[in-house]
Design goal:
Length: 335
Amino acid sequence: MKQQMSSRERFLTALHRGQPDRVPWLEGYIHQSLADRIVGRRTNLPPGWCISPDVYPILCLDAIVYDFLPPIFATMERHGDVLQVKEPLLKSKDDLKALKEFLPDPDKPEFYASASELLAFARQRDLAAIAAVRLGVSNTYNSMGYDNFCYALYDDPEFILESMEIYGEWCIKVITHVNEMGFDAIWISEDIAFKWGPMFSPEQFRKYMLPHEKKVADHIALPKIYHTDGNPLLLLPDLLTLNINALANLEHGAVDIFKVKEEYGDKICLIGNIDLHYTLPDGTPEETVLETKEKIERVGKGGGYIIASSNGLTEYCKVENILALNGAILRYGWY
């Protein structure tokens, strides 16, 4: 009888386009209010942890993610479990000095204390430990405000480049530390697409963003997972030049994951695509099982697939559908 893999072995095998014993399951985050409902009580969510450790005895997740994302230079406001930009503060080059002073010191040992606790938890349960970082693009447009960012692309691209440089240098320092900590992979969280296509023209992306992203990504010594919302496929050949191992989360309704599997399945691992617009928040457990089974059978064929939602498990998902997803993975996910 074939020996069952650990969660970490399973995840890393799929990440490198191999066929593990079962399709692994990864979520970039689970909102705490949803975790509370899954567990049936108030859960513990340590600083920086993207998923409460309390859900792991219930869900068959194979990885856990820690948040090393740089803060957005803006006034923020909370809506439930989500922090959103209220007012961008990076309005001109005069604000660049304040941006540098705003960012926390990435060389302080205490910055990594909670991450070390997550690593200990991951090793105890033999989970894959993932470090979420950014390269500086999405922090720049969020800190500037997207409208101002778009105007600056034409009126003052140097302002954008200087802003990305400040964020990028901070990210490089964090990545340098993370490389040595014992994480298994890096999750690059850079939203670069809307549902209908890239947020920038391919020409703009190649001229301004891609050289910057490559400069920062080249410091990553671990396997790379590139996450973006929407449909980035027009830019996928460019993203492959970053030597990424996987593309996440392949938003359902924006991306035809079956077509991507045919065209790119021999080049990168695919992550995600369980519908977060209808199935998980509004569908039935039966619909959740059917969709999960189809993704496992069609995208998971031959390996190189890690199942996940189209972004993360949000507070508006139904608990019964998350449990149905869990059950379907355990029933249909074995090779």
